[in-house]
Design brief:
Belongs to the leguminous lectin family. One of its GO terms (molecular function) is carbohydrate binding. It comes from Aristolochia fimbriata (White veined hardy Dutchman's pipe vine). By secondary structure, the protein is mainly β. Helix content is 11%, strand content 28%.
Length: 200
């Protein structure tokens, strides 16, 4: 085999290899403080910015909720085929504080969620529904395409475990895994949360 034939074969092999290797890109964003005029985040319901932090609901009223949504799609599967054939990992970290203001009755908690881009807050989804479900959508988990990590401060029967908790929920409010979490021991403290998802 001549040198030029070998070089051509090597080049063809390398080109084939490079075309078979999937190209990846990384998405990263950081919000050290929040701007109420930002177009990167959507503030919905009672969510508002106060002193560079997000306040999720107005504590003077019951049965309310707030939500913040990142305005760009964050793909976790192969968008060319619209199938979950090439899943990807993701990691997020956020700091939050839940304050009861000394009241024995307080809100139901906080949720980090991953959902389809067209997911809207259902009507009548406040309180124990955590702004994610209502009586209609909770009863049809096959229609829901949502994964949540909940910091649940109030026990709602029949779906909650018997204690306030941190839980992982898939298409419903019933935690598939949970650990007890008592808000009265952490009232007003800053909590650091990391959510890691491994596709393998």
């Amino acid at each position: 085999m001549s040198t030029s034939s070998f070089s051509c074969l090597l080049l063809r092999t390398l080109m084939t290899f490079f075309f078979l290797v999937p190209f990846t890109s990384s998405i990263s964003f950081r919000f050290p403080s929040f701007d109420p005029n930002s177009t990167t985040l959507f503030y919905e319901g009672d969510a508002s910015v106060f002193n560079g932090a997000i306040q999720m609901n107005d504590y003077e009223y019951f049965a309310r909720n707030g939500r913040i949504t990142y305005s760009h799609r964050v793909p976790i599967w192969d968008s060319a085929t619209q199938r979950l054939t090439r899943l990807t990992d993701f990691t997020t970290h956020f700091v939050f504080s839940i304050t009861t203001l000394g009241n024995p009755i307080y809100g139901h908690g906080l949720v980090f969620y991953r959902a389809a881009p067209d997911f809207d807050t259902p009507q009548n989804s406040n309180g124990g529904f955590l702004g994610m479900f209502n009586t209609t959508t909770l009863g049809t988990p096959s229609r829901n395409q949502i994964v949540t990590v909940e910091f649940d401060t109030y026990v709602n029967t029949p779906w909650d475990p018997p204690v306030p908790h941190t839980g992982i929920c898939v298409n419903t409010l019933a935690s598939v895994k949970y650990l007890p979490w008592n808000i009265s021991l952490h009232n007003g403290f800053k909590a650091n949360a990391w959510v890691d998802y491994s596709s393998s």
